[in-house]
Write a structure and sequence with these properties.
The chain is of the alpha+beta class. The protein contains 18 helices and eight strands. The chain is flat, with a radius of gyration of 29 Å. Helices cover 54% and strands 8% of the residues.
Length: 431
């Protein structure tokens, strides 16, 4: 049996050849006709249908093309919930070399990804690229990676090493410094994710630092429970101690899963900064259910660097706009602490519980505006707005910023207004 094609379905091949599903516009084929169409022999086709032989990915692709069906139509889809990434690739009729050539990646890096789930560090959109090459969704790719035995083993081993480092470093008195650079567990864990020790140490210093806060709070409550002379305070402290212990254990168990997700989806510092700017643009919206759009050209001149699963693009009339998807918002909220540990100099997401307050909008430096006769709210991302505001204040005048061939934005020291491009000057009164 050909390697890896255990999910090939002989019965599906026969059903499609004989048109048992009665597809409109399709006629049945004899085994000999199908063989001629794919450059095989009748005996080979019958061997495939009888389960005596399994076609390789190239032959799968040829059979599907001849039958005018997708390649996965020849697979046993009852087992799809157990497919690994290699299974999905073969179901797409692709060899590993085909994907390597399509993605312009080294065979070694692709093998590591398919067998170990290690995303190349310099390819932040790699999961999207693989999904596109295989003709499946990004979610399908991620689920398939999670089923890879090496990935499951890594998470189990990662939990053991994280627990060991937590026991080793969290109880230490004095300022928090995180794991020692020479720690063997740290080195092994970094190698398992295909990342440098320095990078993983920063990440774990943050994660274990969060745990340490729970540990310290638990110990304070334990001291009260053990030594306070008031019985009511003792009882309350005992309950609080148990709760902090539960929080500690829960968060400790989550760390390997967070490390796995973060290393699959982590963005370089410049892209992370763009995601933060988009998050901040939407964080100060007046109507959360509607959300704000950022003007793409004022955010970046390289919109293709924005991960498609994190950022949705669109147009309002002819003005290119973008904003975070729900997954993008979740990514920023979930991993902002880890990014801060890696890139301490970049802007951080706005944290506010009152999204409609003028104070929050002023802190963000981002007021929204609308295009003439359009209801959608648009914002000018930072730092572009801050720079233009300073220039406008120095000149004591409105500055014009082209948004498209139709619209222009007027930026004043304290207000934004948009107007049609053929208007030479913005209105005297921006309100």
């Amino acid at each position: 049996m050909a390697r890896g094609l255990t999910h090939f379905s002989p019965s599906e091949l026969r059903a499609h050849r004989m048109n048992i599903y009665a597809r409109p516009g399709r006629a049945s084929m004899t085994a000999e006709e199908l063989a001629q169409a794919v450059g095989a022999t009748k005996a080979q086709v019958l061997a495939y249908e009888n389960g005596h032989r399994v076609p390789d990915p190239v032959r799968i692709r040829a059979l599907a093309q001849a039958l005018e069906i997708p390649t996965w139509g020849l697979m046993d889809r009852d087992t799809i919930s157990a497919w690994t990434l290699a299974d999905h690739r073969r179901a797409a009729g692709l060899r590993a070399q085909d994907v390597v050539e399509a993605l312009s990646i080294s065979p070694k890096n692709y093998r590591r990804f398919e067998s170990e789930g290690i995303v190349p560090s310099r390819r932040p959109q790699f999961l999207d690229e693989v999904a596109s090459a295989l003709g499946v969704s990004r979610h399908t790719v991620e689920r398939a990676i999670d089923r890879t035995p090496a990935v499951q083993e890594r998470q189990a081993r990662a939990f053991q090493m994280v627990v060991a480092m937590a026991d080793r470093y969290i109880p230490q008195p004095g300022p928090w410094r995180g794991p020692a650079p020479e720690d063997e567990d740290l080195g092994e864990l970094a190698a398992s994710y295909g990342r440098t020790v320095q990078r993983l140490r920063r990440v774990l210093t943050h994660e274990l630092g969060e745990l340490r806060q729970s540990y310290v709070r638990a110990q304070r409550e334990r001291a009260v429970a053990d030594y306070d002379t008031d019985l009511a305070r003792q009882a309350g402290a005992r309950y609080a101690y148990e709760r902090w212990q539960e929080v500690f254990s829960r968060d400790l168990r989550r760390i390997p899963h967070r490390l796995e997700r973060f290393h699959r989806t982590a963005q370089p510092s410049d892209v992370w900064q763009l995601l933060v700017d988009l998050y901040n643009a939407d964080a100060v919206t007046l109507r959360r259910e509607v959300g704000n759009w950022a003007v793409t050209s004022l955010l970046t001149t390289k919109s293709q660097t924005l991960p498609p699963h994190f950022v949705v693009h669109g147009y309002i009339d002819d003005v290119a706009v973008c904003r975070l998807t729900a997954e993008g918002t979740s990514h920023v909220q979930s991993f902002s602490g880890l990014y801060a540990a890696l890139f301490p100099g970049v802007r951080r997401p706005i944290r506010t519980t009152n999204r409609s307050s003028s104070k929050a909008r002023t802190a963000a430096g981002q007021e929204s505006f609308t295009l003439p006769n359009r209801p959608e709210r648009l914002v000018v991302p930072q730092p572009f707005l801050g720079k233009k505001r300073a220039e406008a204040a120095d000149a004591n005048a409105y500055l014009t910023v082209p948004l498209s061939s139709t619209y222009v934005l007027g930026v004043g020291p304290n207000a934004l207004t948009s107007y049609f491009f053929d208007v030479l000057y913005p209105p005297d009164d921006p309100d």
